[in-house]
Amino acid sequence: xxxxxxxxxxxxxxxxxxxxxxxxxxxxxxxxxxxxxxxxxxxxxxxxxxxxxxxxxxxxxxxxxxxxxxxxxxxxxxxxxxxxxxxxxxxxxxxxxxxxxxxxxxxxxxxxxxxxxxxxxxxxxxxxxxxxxxxxxxxxxxxxxxxxxxxxxxxxxxxxxxxxxxxxxxxxxxxxxxxxxxxxxxxxxxxxxxxxxxxxxxxxxxxxxxxxxxxxxxxxxxxxxxxxxxxxxxxxxxxxxxxxxxxxxxxxxxxxxxxxxxxxxxxxxxxxxxxxxxxxxxxxxxxxxxxxxxxxxxxxxxxxxxxxxxxxxxxxxxxxxxxxxxxxxxxxxxxxxxxxx
Length: 341
Description:
Layout: H1 18-44, H2 51-75, H3 80-83, H4 92-122, H5 136-166, H6 171-186, H7 192-209, H8 213-235, H9 239-248, H10 254-284, H11 297-309, H12 311-339
Helix pairs in contact: 1-2, 1-5, 1-12, 2-5, 4-7, 4-8, 4-10, 5-6, 5-8, 6-7, 7-8, 7-10
């Protein structure tokens, strides 16, 4: 009898291990560096660095997140559909709560994000990565490239693989470390606060619902709302107004910045508490469909025991996490240094 062909979506283990997470984080960094080398080579050959080339590169970088998950799954014969929790559904009520969480996160954490950006400005840092959405064509393109694609690809890697692998070691550690890697992977100092806090919320929402669809939705809404606000703001402003806003960007007096930071911390704390209670509400009203995955609990426990029974596997994963973390921190520091005038 002919053996059934392996299907990476549905055949194999139904959960990722701690070792898988460490390997996945390291593989993505290698893929990203290869893409950067290829882009540098193309530019070096004299091919103009058009905006379209940047869009293509951005898209390929996002696909690298997704490709990493499938590479790790293929190497360890893991069923991606079950391992990243695509099989678990979310309810309409949960969708509504996630929308509220998105609004609270965006507007509740904006002051503390802005205070950190002002601090960076005061020490001489400036970023040239700001996005300006000025036309309907750009708006539609950016929704695809910066809202839909990142929501799917990044959540597959950071929540579907890395967070789930890390939680086999420690639940709280998994939340904060996956958020830290998520923040560092964006590579720009001015995104540090928002991406880290968002990463924590994404992991908590994922844990509460047991479905990857929840963080995908929240991630999409976060980027979509930010892009829409940017677009509406630019459409309602004249070019002269925009130029004046740019010219008015200057250093904030340290005393004023300190007061604003205290205010922003209070606002962020209130938003954080509200989000925490909403996440608890989601957890208490978890979809009935998540129960279908309980039968995989014994397999998850077995994979945990097998993963940590191998001393070499444990050491390999820890080593790869450390190497990845050090590399990303160095890149963050270099981005900060390069951005200081």
